[in-house]
């Protein structure tokens, strides 16, 4: 019988800290040793001295943090184990965005699995999620609610086929915009995908490191003043700035209902798990305990109340 260490990973002001290996996972402020699950801004910050991550995550961070103090990157492949002060760490594909990883940590025979952000839905632009067994599952709970069910992204994107007017499509620049580009290329091939300038460098990294060809054009000032069937992908700030844009259909791709309000058409495409996929994932991992982060774990605690220990991660 393995002995689980209750404070193996704790949440601190700096991020999730493993004092047994003396490293942080997805720190919120610069630290000496940072294990980064993926390159979204709420998981990857500049200024860490030593960064352990996948190749794609390093590429995104190095592009975004060029004006900051140079970090030392230790790039690790998926399924490649490395040692941090006696803790064996392995990156497992998370299926969230290109290069995203679950972090498997093995210490004194106990397997602790930190999910980071992850999804089970098919996404040709990134590595598909992989499943490993763990004694402790440390999972995000962004949409851990039985009332949340993400629709089929293919059926969602096909809703745009019926719109011949130009579309302003709000989405996050890293991960979501590349996924949407591929979905549009594949299921709405008559649409021309136009990119906001901030998305172009990230698409080019996907072109270099990704798995599928992305067809897109840079947005020009006259792009939406002529023709038809154009979809202009813009980041959230631009989308919100042009709230009164004329002659375009406004759409925002997200799993959050609040981000669908006041738009001309809803588009529920999320890069996080919903309730059903969370239960499927837990069934694959077969943990003894579940520790929750990034959301509300009350529904999970109630669901597993007579079968498994479920709690929030401890505060350090």
Automatic annotation (TrEMBL):
**The Zn-dependent metallo-hydrolase RNA specificity domain covers which part of the protein?**
269-303
Q: Name one GO molecular function term.
A: RNA endonuclease activity
The domain of life for this entry's organism is: Bacteria
Residues spanning the signal sequence: none
InterPro entries cross-referenced by the UniProt entry: MBL, RibonucZ/Hydroxyglut_hydro, RMMBL
Protein name as catalogued: Putative mRNA 3-end processing factor
Instruction: Enumerate the Pfam families for this protein.
Output: RMMBL
């Amino acid at each position: 019988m393995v002995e689980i260490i209750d404070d193996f990973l704790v949440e601190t002001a700096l991020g999730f800290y493993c004092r047994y290996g003396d490293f942080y996972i997805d720190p919120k402020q610069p630290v000496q040793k940072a294990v980064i699950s993926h390159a979204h801004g709420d998981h990857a910050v500049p200024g860490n001295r030593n960064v352990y991550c996948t190749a794609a995550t390093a590429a995104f961070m190095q592009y975004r943090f060029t004006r900051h103090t140079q970090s030392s990157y230790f790039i690790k492949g998926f399924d490649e184990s490395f040692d941090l002060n006696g803790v064996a760490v392995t990156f497992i594909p998370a299926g969230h965005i290109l290069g995203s990883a679950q972090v498997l940590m093995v210490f004194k025979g106990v397997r602790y699995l930190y999910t980071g952000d992850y999804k089970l839905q098919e996404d040709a632009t990134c590595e598909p999620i992989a499943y490993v067994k763990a004694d402790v599952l440390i999972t995000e709970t962004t949409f851990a609610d039985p009332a949340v069910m993400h629709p089929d992204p293919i059926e969602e994107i096909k809703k745009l086929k019926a719109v011949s007017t130009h579309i302003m499509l709000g989405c996050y620049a890293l991960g979501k915009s590349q996924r949407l580009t591929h979905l549009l290329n594949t299921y709405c091939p008559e649409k021309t995908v136009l990119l906001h300038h901030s998305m172009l460098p990230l698409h080019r990294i996907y072109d270099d490191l990704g798995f599928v060809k992305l067809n897109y054009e840079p947005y020009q000032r006259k792009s939406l003043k002529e023709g038809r069937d154009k979809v202009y992908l813009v980041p959230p700030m631009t989308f919100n700035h042009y709230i009164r844009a004329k002659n375009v259909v406004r759409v925002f791709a997200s799993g959050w209902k609040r981000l669908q309000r006041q738009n001309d058409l809803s588009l529920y495409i999320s890069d996080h798990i919903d309730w059903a996929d969370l239960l499927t994932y837990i069934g694959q991992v077969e943990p003894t305990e579940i520790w929750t982060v990034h959301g509300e774990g009350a529904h999970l605690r109630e669901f597993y109340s007579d079968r498994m220990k479920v709690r929030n991660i401890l505060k350090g």
